[in-house]
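Q: I have 707 residues here and want to know how they pack in 3D. Can you give me a structure?
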Amino acid sequence: MGVTRLTRHMFLWSMAIIYMFAFASLYVQIPGLYGNEGVLPVRLVEPRVDGSRPVLEQIHAHPSLLWLGPWLGLDLDAQQAMELLCLVGALLALGAALLEPLRDSLVFFCLWALYFSLCQVGQDFLRFQWDSLLLEAGFLTVLIAPLNLLRCSTFRQHDGVTFWLARWLLFRLTFGSGVAKLASHCPSWWGLTAVNHMFEAQGIPLPLSWFIQQLPDWYLKLGTVGLLVTEIAVPPLYFAPIRHLRLAAFYIQATYQVKLMLLGNYGFLPFLSLALTFSLLDDDHISYWLGHSKKKRTKTWPQTIMSLLVVLAVFAVIIYGTKVLFTLEIDWEANTITSKTAFTQQQFGNWLKLVTGPTIWVGVLSLTWEVVAAMLGCVCVRGCLWKLWGLVQWAVFASAAVAVFAISVVPYSSMEQVYSSKILPEVRQAYKLVERYRLVSAYSLDSRMTGVDGRSEVILEGSMDKNTWTEIEFMYKPGNVGVAPPVVAPHQPRLDWQMSQAAQGLAKQSPWFTSLVHCLLQGNKDVVRLIQTDSAQYPFSQAPPVYLRASLYRYWFTQTTQDGSDPNEWWRRDYAEEFYPAVQLGGPTLEARLSQHGLKEKFPIQPSPDSPLAQVLRQVRGHVQTLPGHLVLWSLLATVATIWLLRTLLSGVLGGRKAKPTPAEPKAKKAKDQPAEKSASASSLKAERENSEESRRDADKSPKKRK
């Protein structure tokens, strides 16, 4: 693969932006989710500080930076410690997005440690797959980023090795998710009707989702075929030796992620997936985007034709295979394309057994190529000390890359049990040692499609007398059938997403729901702000309800009328069943469920400290608590965009900033270009001498000189 310096910078900048989104989105929700009177108070799960044990021993037993809270003068209940971690993470990420020197390995390690500490106590609200993906991608970023703050040499022949890990993660994410869809035996995926329900059943739909739902069924079925091909047939091209195949795979995956951004509120997941696709690019293509691509050494016409023929042959095979495996046929009379799966679940299982091992070996060969190429780059360096320094770096980072790849094989191979049993015991043992740090994970996004019989939604209702019930509307999730779906990405409303997940099962499978009911009966303002930041939109803002109950409804998008006009409402719904019985504060039913789920008080609430840091945190919280989360994130994004725009305008007005010389280019490059530099310097000296002689002759001829 070609030089990846620009693509690496793009990846690091993207990771800084994504971290900023993640920390800021979680920060605005901490009091309601994890506060002393929140849905899942962190003090109920946080390990208590034991003065008799060394701090390092306690951190090893329960790795989290929240241990530092008491030493910083924060409350022992860890709410303010969580807020501090989020604020520090958001500010660090904002700085890294704006300042290139802060896109440093140490900074990204701090960001990873901060987010990992939050996930350690995040419980149900921080156990989504995109949280695991951010932790894994964040750890890889530590290896990919340079050590700018330590002013280390930019001689980094190992960049290709560490950046390859992002490509391997992208492969595991896409290929693993695609395989899981069919391996789950979900009727919607096998019947090619998953996309027919996807836009309606997603966690928080977008307004555009309603319009996509109006498309004909045959077109949506074709979309299911395209999605499966994108996630199963295209990922092997990530490791293709031909550059144009990798670029084609990039554009296919990037288009898919942009589509997710436009058609659903998936938080930072599509942004993170898009950042990983940058590992498929090289600097020449980025320079082509920017309009100042350098002239490359041209291939001979036989090489160009051969490369083009191979690319066309690969995509011809993919298209033909898609037609055969999904029985694509054009119905010219109805102007439609019919499709259905032409293979059985047993045949797919046999194919999966056949390809799991080879895909791992393709990864081994691709990583070996990068490792050997990096080693040769170090050996070609001029100077013994530079060679030694380069080989030391290569050995360290190549070993780290091989170790990460080896342990990642364990969760990856879990999709096929026969091959999974063949993994070396030593590799499994290494995976178990680091499993608690979530360095690698298995991914199976949307493996089972829900909402086939209508989207399930839990509707909360409150009452003062148990006779008249009033619905409690959430800001983001569907409720009122006449309210349009919101646009909230990249904000991740954790409670709204969990409400959608809870609707897929029973209330006893979501213990936090009992705590939510308890908090609303108490009138906890922090929890109410998770539902509505505008108190005028909350029906019990003056006094909390005496009774609460929850019902399960089925929701469907409305359809356009026969005359083609749009309906007056976005949704239609039907009552399904009771989800949670009517309860009151102190009632036996509620008390029994609180005790059953371990939500009763274990520790008394500690008084709030009055340290300077605690006061600052309270001041910041006071300014932010009334703002909706999506507005906070959009404001941060607008701030970054404005600063970048001002910097661009100022650099244009001032004639552009002078190009800074690279502090230390790889010595191999210097050694290679040294003869050209010597000849250039010799010619420049000769030109200077000729110019000085001409100027002296002109001076002798001037009238003043003749006098």
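Q: Anything worth noting?
A: Strands lie at 329-331, 336-338, 455-463, 470-471, 547-557, 571-584. The longest strand covers residues 571-584.
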